[in-house]
């Protein structure tokens, strides 16, 4: 039976060794949470990095690790400490991530990083080539592996290869600054189908292909090396039922400690309201902007003091990269400043958690919050916005969402804001707090309908359908 090989830098599970004991956690981030559902259901093998370095993998626990990974239908690519520094923290997260999110000032162009990126992409391609059989499909994911499609296609031209980018694709004016731009584009064009979250990212990619490689682009098809390469947008959905059903179920079960504390606040006064944000601690997520806008709101509308609380969950991420350390410091300071300025004996305006939380607690946070305030300055999609909507089983609640998140393109019924406009955010927050239930429900109903229809399963299905159609189209053209 033919299989699909999913390839991404991170596997859906992350392993750590602590005190000679294995610790296993689910990976955080849109890619892992989204694809997990597809992987669990289909005949697939997932190839990626386990979170352990090659040095750690060679320990006494290696047998246990391998068994664990195999049980999850995965295989691991082992990265050395040097790969981690130069490929992962280096080229992936100090070059591509900032550049593709329009943070030019954070972008480092380093030859050592680039050499490591090429070598590690080759490692991933080799791991795929070891497993791929005739008739299999390979689906490569995200910015860490942009060269892998070509490396596979060069060795196995008949293999069907799809590629999906989970982050924004920047405009030509940004992308053209990249020193290895031709190699990167050729790498991606090894795929038969290239997918993006939004039409804008797709448009930017096609523009780079036309202007840098001077290739002919016919609407959204590129003829390349006697093949047809198709480029299209597929906005990623969520496992709607999982979130909705968990929210329903948890309401009937015994309350967690966190839920009890959240209830205490809600019951403290009839006007008490909770505003939620959940992100990885990343400078693209607009965390300082959000705190500043909240501070601005409390100054502009003091009648809300002692009534509203911002609950901010920030999950540690890429903490070896200096910009992430600076962001953590800035966030700590801002939270301290706002809490110091406004707190009373019975009220703290911001509850800030810098940690990962179990799934059940995420659901508690989603279901207890009257408002979700999601303000990235740039975000490929943002699944948290969709998860919040899916858990609103009474169809109440308001989603405030940045225009800079890919998700805003499909969520017009949210209250869309510019994350740099504090005046607008403060006024929108007030409007959201005062929105009549009827309006909340009518907005939520439309949002939920759309998310229920275009789930993550549907997203994968549409991508695969289009991938096979493109491959067959290519075969017809070549035969002519
Ligand atoms: P990104 O991919 O940039 O991290 P997204 O909003 O698209 O941003 O995806 C974040 C994903 O990580 C969501 O699916 C969310 O549920 C998950 N997540 C966020 N915080 C946690 C956490 N503390 N524990 C587990 N999963 C989390
Ligand atoms: C985003 C990226 C993913 C990445 C995730 C977590 O969702 O698109 O590719 O896995 O962030 O980041 P990390 O660096 O921890 O893998």
Automatic annotation (TrEMBL):
The keyword Transferase applies. Keywords: Coiled coil, Glycosyltransferase, Transferase. GO terms for cellular component: cytosol. Its EC number is 2.4.1.15. GO terms for molecular function: alpha,alpha-trehalose-phosphate synthase (UDP-forming) activity; trehalose-phosphatase activity. Pathway: Glycan biosynthesis; trehalose biosynthesis. It is an enzyme of class 2 (transferase). The keyword Plastid does not apply. It catalyses: D-glucose 6-phosphate + UDP-alpha-D-glucose = alpha,alpha-trehalose 6-phosphate + UDP + H(+). One of its GO terms (biological process) is trehalose biosynthetic process. Residues 241-268 form a coiled coil. Belongs to the glycosyltransferase 20 family. Homotetramer. This is Alpha,alpha-trehalose-phosphate synthase. It comes from Psychroserpens burtonensis.
């Amino acid at each position: 039976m033919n299989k699909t090989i999913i390839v991404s830098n991170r596997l859906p599970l992350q392993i750590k060794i602590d005190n000679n004991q294995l610790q296993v956690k689910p990976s955080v981030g849109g890619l892992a949470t989204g694809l997990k559902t597809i992987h669990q259901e289909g005949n697939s093998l997932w190839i990626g990095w386990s979170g352990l370095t090659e040095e750690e993998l060679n320990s006494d626990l290696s047998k246990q690790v391998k068994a664990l990974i195999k049980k999850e239908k995965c295989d691991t690519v082992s990265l050395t400490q040097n790969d981690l520094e130069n490929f992962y923290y280096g080229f992936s997260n100090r070059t591509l991530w900032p550049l593709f999110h329009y943070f030019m000032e954070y972008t480092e162009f380093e030859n050592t990083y680039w050499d490591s990126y090429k070598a590690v992409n080759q490692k991933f391609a080799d791991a795929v080539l070891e497993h791929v059989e005739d008739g299999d499909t390979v689906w490569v994911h995200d910015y860490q592996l942009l060269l892998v499609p070509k490396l596979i296609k060069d060795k196995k031209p008949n293999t069907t290869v799809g590629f999906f980018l989970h982050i924004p694709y920047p405009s030509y004016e940004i992308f053209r600054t990249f020193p290895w731009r031709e190699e990167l584009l050729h790498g991606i064009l090894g795929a038969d189908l290239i997918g993006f979250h939004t039409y804008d990212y797709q448009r930017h990619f096609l523009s780079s292909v036309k202007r840098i490689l001077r290739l002919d682009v016919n609407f959204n098809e590129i003829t390349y090396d006697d093949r047809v390469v198709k480029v299209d947008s597929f906005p990623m959905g969520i496992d709607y039922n999982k979130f909705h059903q968990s929210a329903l179920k948890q309401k009937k079960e015994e309350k967690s400690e966190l839920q009890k504390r959240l209830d205490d606040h809600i019951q403290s006064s009839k006007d008490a309201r909770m505003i939620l944000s959940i992100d990885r601690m990343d400078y693209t997520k607009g965390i300082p902007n959000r705190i500043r806008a909240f501070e601005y709101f409390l100054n502009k509308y003091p009648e809300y003091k002692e009534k509203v609380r911002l609950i901010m969950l920030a999950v540690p991420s890429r903490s070896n990269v200096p910009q992430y350390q600076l962001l953590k410091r800035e966030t700590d300071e801002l939270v301290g400043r706002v809490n110091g300025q406004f707190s009373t004996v019975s009220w703290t305006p911001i509850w800030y958690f810098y940690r990962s939380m179990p799934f059940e607690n995420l659901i508690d946070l989603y279901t207890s919050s009257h408002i979700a305030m999601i303000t990235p300055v740039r975000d490929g999609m943002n699944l948290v916005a969709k998860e919040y909507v899916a858990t609103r089983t009474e169809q109440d609640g308001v989603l405030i969402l940045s225009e800079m998140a890919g998700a805003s393109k499909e969520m017009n019924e949210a209250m869309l804001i510019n994350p740099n406009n504090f005046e607008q955010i403060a006024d929108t927050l007030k409007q959201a707090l005062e929105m009549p239930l009827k309006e909340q429900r009518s907005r939520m109903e439309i949002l939920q309908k759309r998310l229920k229809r275009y789930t993550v399963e549907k997203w994968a299905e549409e991508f695969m359908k289009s991938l096979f159609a493109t491959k067959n189209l290519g075969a017809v053209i070549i035969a002519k």
